[in-house]
Specification:
The chain has 90 residues and is mainly alpha-helical. It has a domain at 29-82. It has three helices and two strands, in the order H-H-E-E-H. Strands 1-2 form a two-stranded antiparallel ribbon. Strand 1 and strand 2 form a beta hairpin. The longest helix is centred in the first third of the chain and has 26 residues, at 2-27. It starts with a helix and ends in a 10-residue tail after the last helix.
Amino acid sequence: MTSLKKKLKRQKIKETKKDLTQKVGLFNKISDYCLTCGKNFDKTNKDMVVTWNVVVAQDTVRLYCPQCWNNAHQLIQEIKNGYSNTKGDV
């Protein structure tokens, strides 16, 4: 049983390294601006790295600032709750 445990441990380490390599590769694909509003993004600013949102889908990396991210979530909530345009502006 010991050899099985070692084999599983080696396999897990190998998969972890592969996953990390993929994620580091995707980090280089992050753009320098918000996809929605165009606000600049600084990869070296820790606050921005922590607060901005990254969406990865099939090797496509999309970056959103906190304000645009919140606006999108509010819009989704309004749609779910049966949004009705009371102002008549659309």
